[in-house]
C-alpha cells in the first residue's frame, strides 16, 4: 500500500475512535495547527519529548510564546522531584511516535526516560508527532519491534471507558483528546 493510502486509512480509523489527525509539510503548518489546538483547549502547561528534530523545533518555537509554559521531558528529568509530580499539572503532553498503525488508527510509543508513558497518560490532551515513514499497515508489522521492547504503549483514540450501564466516558484513564500530527512532505 502506498504511503498516501496508509495515511488516509490511518486518519479514517483514528477519526472513528474520536481522535484527530493533521498532516503537515513543514514546521510552520504544524505550529499553526498546534497553536489553534492550544487556544481551543485553553492549554497553559505543556510537556514535550524532544527526541526528534521536528519535536525540538516545535519546543524551541513554543518557548517563545509567553501564553504557555513548556518544559521538555529532558528538563523535567533533571529536577530532583518525581516525574509524575512534574507532569500532574500538565494540560498537554507531546510525544514522538515510533509507529502508526493504519489498520486501527493506533499509535505505538516506546517508553524511555526521554519518552515516559506518563507523558501520554496524565495530561488531558495528547499530541503525537510522527512522520509518514512511521506508518505501518498492521500491528503485526511491528512484531519485531514489540518483541524486543519492555514497555510499549499502543494508543487507539482518546481514553474511554463504559460502566455497567454502558455509559461511555472519555478521559478517565488517560487523555480526553488525542491528536496525531504526521510530517509528510510528499502529500499533494
Verbal overview:
With 188 residues, this protein is α/β, with parallel strands linked by helices. It has one domain (3-183): Rossmann fold, CATH 3.40.50.10420. 32% of the residues lie in helices and 28% in strands. It contains 7 helices and 12 strands. It has helices at 3-16, 27-40, 53-63, 73-78, 83-87, 118-121, 143-148, and strands spanning 20-24, 45-48, 69-72, 92-96, 99-101, 106-110, 125-131, 135-136, 152-155, 160-162, 168-170, 177-183. The protein has a 6-stranded parallel beta sheet, with helices on both faces. Strand 5 and strand 6 form a beta hairpin. The two termini are 17 Å apart. The relative contact order is 0.22. The mean pLDDT is 85.
Descriptive keywords:
32% helix, 7 helices, alpha/beta, 188 residues, 6-stranded parallel β-sheet
How is the largest sheet built, in terms of strand order? 1-12-7-4-2-3
* Count of individual helical segments: 7
**Strand content bin:** 25-35%
Approximate helicity band? 25-40%
Q: What is the level-2 CATH architecture name? A: 3-Layer(aba) Sandwich
The CATH topology, please? Rossmann fold
Terminal residue distance: 17 Å
Q: How would a crystallographer describe the biggest sheet?
A: 6 strands, parallel
CATH homology-level superfamily: NagB/RpiA/CoA transferase-like
How would you describe the shape? Answer: globular
Topology order in helix (H) and strand (E) letters:
HEHEHEHHEEEHEEHEEEE
How many domains would you count in the coordinates? 1
Mean pLDDT over the residues = 85
Strand tally is: 12
Q: Tell me the radius of gyration.
A: 16 Å
